[in-house]
Amino acid sequence: DCVKSREQTYAPFEIGHRTIAMSHMGNICLQLGRKLRWDPDSETFPDDAEANAMTSRQMHNGWSLS
Questions:
Q1: Does pTM top 0.85 for this prediction?
Q2: Which helix (H) or strand (E) holds 49?
């Protein structure tokens, strides 16, 4: 509705992003079976390449973020 009306959403996008990021972090912890440390400024797991690799997927069919 907000896309069509251009009104503000119920919650700012930053709040939605941070909320779902916590769910993703929890899922990564469960999959790896260990506790992880999270840096909210860089949005990475410091010194943990395996966990960081799980924060995104490979894009297909020529798609990219630019």
A1: no
A2: helix 49-53
